[in-house]
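[User]
Um, tokens okay?
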Amino acid sequence: MSSRDEQNEEVENINDESVNTEESSASENSVEDQLTKLKSEYLYLRAEFDNYRKNTIKERSQLIRYGAEPLLRELLTVLDNFDLALGTKIDSENIVSFKQGMEMTAKEFRSVLTKFGLKEEDPTGEPFDPNKHEALSSEPTSKVESGHIVSVFKKAYLLHDKLIRPAQVTVAREPDSSNTDEDIT
């Protein structure tokens, strides 16, 4: 190889290295640009998530604080009716209409509670279930099968499908010769 060929080859190598350096420099700039862009997107998404979390906490707090408002608005009508009744002077002439008014108010009260998911259960005659009933006493009787509920002191209440108060009941037992009631404790 001639010296001229060697010089040309060296010049080409230098040109190739310079092109490679420029390409790698451009490549590094591209990677840095992508990294900057990804960091920016990350910070934006993080800020957006933080705002979402704060808004969710605020909404939940508002729901807990004011969630009973619709129920209370409806109960205010019932309360107004009770206030009117309490302000009424009762005598022998209006006692019947007073009683009817109180019954209507109680019916309205139950209607509001039902509207908001409260269900009343009267378990009279049903088998005793310790998960739903609280036995206050037992009664010897042949009218109702032993282990079934004879009478109810307080009805059971459910909120949708969740028991919020068990029924307080008297449970039937086989009649015995002594005929005495035994309280269950």
